[in-house]
Amino acid sequence: MSTSKLMKERVRRVRVLFKELGYKLFDGELDNGSYSAAFTDRKGFQSGFYIDNECTFLELSFSFMFSNKLAKYVQNKLEEILLLCYEFGCYVNIQNDEDEIIFSVFSKIYYSGLTYEALKETLIDFRLCVEAIKEVFQLNGEDDEST
């Protein structure tokens, strides 16, 4: 199986599983050996996933964006956020530039273990982690978040 066939199969498999789980998928973007798309559930939770030709796992991601003026606020919440990520088996990435702080939460599932039940449970833990982090940051409105 060539790389492009493998990538196409991974994308097809992931999209089928998301649809079987009742998620709505938005048009994805295939670019230079990677694929990304957004998804939403019936309750309005929106996030995204990422497939890279070079990686052996599917990555789910959700990002929070803050003004640099809130750097101290984010820093004060960091320990609690890291504990939540650990509890739910998620990863975190923080990027800081001149204008904003981007705080991203990730979950990963290996293709070798990617089944309906495994993705279902991973998505449950991922969403619970994101919702718990929203509570820590005291974010209530839809304008406070991004995917």
Keywords:
seven-stranded antiparallel β-sheet, alpha+beta, 32% strand, 147 residues, Yope Regulator, Chain: A, 7 strands, globular, disordered C terminus
Instruction: Quickly give the CATH architecture.
Output: 2-Layer Sandwich
| Total helical segments | 3
Percent helix range: 25-40%
Segments where pLDDT lies below 50 for 5+ residues? 142-147
Spatial shape? globular
> Ends: how far apart?
33 Å
Computed over alpha carbons, the radius of gyration is 16 Å
Provide the residue-averaged pLDDT.
90
Question: How would you explain this protein's 3D organization?
Answer:
The protein is an alpha+beta fold. The protein has one domain (3-144): Yope Regulator, Chain: A (2-Layer Sandwich), CATH 3.30.1460. It has helices spanning 3-20, 71-88, 116-137, and strands at residues 24-25, 29-31, 34-40, 46-52, 57-67, 91-96, 100-110. Strands 1, 2, 3, 4, 5, 6 and 7 form a seven-stranded antiparallel beta sheet that branches.
